[in-house]
Design goal:
Helix 2 packs across helix 3 and helix 6 packs antiparallel against helix 7. This protein has 7 helices and 10 strands. With 281 residues, it is an alpha/beta fold.
Length: 281
Amino acid sequence: MRSSIAARDAPASGNAPPLLELRSLTKRFADPKQGARTVVEGFDLELRPGEFCALIGPTGCGKSTVLSMIAGLERPSGGIILADGAELTGTDPRTGFVFQNDAVFPWKTVLGNVAAGPRFRGAGRHEAGDRALDWIRRVGLSGFEQHYPHQLSGGMRKRVALAQTFVNHPRILLMDEPFSGLDAQTRQIMAGELLGLWEALGASVLFVTHDLEEAIALADRVVVLTARPATVKEEFVVDLPRPRSPREIRFHPRFVELHEEIWSSLSGEVQIAYDRATTVI
């Protein structure tokens, strides 16, 4: 696999054992015509403590399915998922998931939504409320504690979703195209907010996106997946300095070079997926 030489100092976790390991991960779904449809096959990946890793691949290649298996929402058909060296089965309190669509309770206020996780995990009402207020402040929603989701903009609801997840202090943060429904300006703002929260929390992030520029701007490593069934095609180290502004880093000469390198790997898989989708059977 191709890898760039990192220009910045390697993180302290660079030689640490992997926090998350996917070994030969495979997922098949029942198919009325074919009997079974393989979506993910022989998928191998390691995620180290504190690392931000972006997965990018053609539409429908199986990126979201990989996250769902890690989160315990889908059961693998084969292979194994390890966290801290032990097999990970089902949902796990070390893992947080930010979905593409806002997973908020419409009948709860912002405060109620953010406090729900700690309450579910056994925290008392006052403790959960205090923790929720802290994260509401961190995501820039102070003053909106008593608002309901329908009273918020799309960007504000995404902030609620981030606070909902970060309040539980996950060690593994799974994000499935969390900013895809936002306009370009709000998306860049939210990307910057995410980096600030991630640097403060120190979680390991596995981030699914269709936006190559977003992947490079955010990640330490970009992993290109094949057209379905998804497996790892190539990995690229993003050797851009941190702290990093997702808007300003796009003007860095190395950003342009990385974009060309990664697109040269990704474009072939995109073409394969497109040809399959437009072929008349």
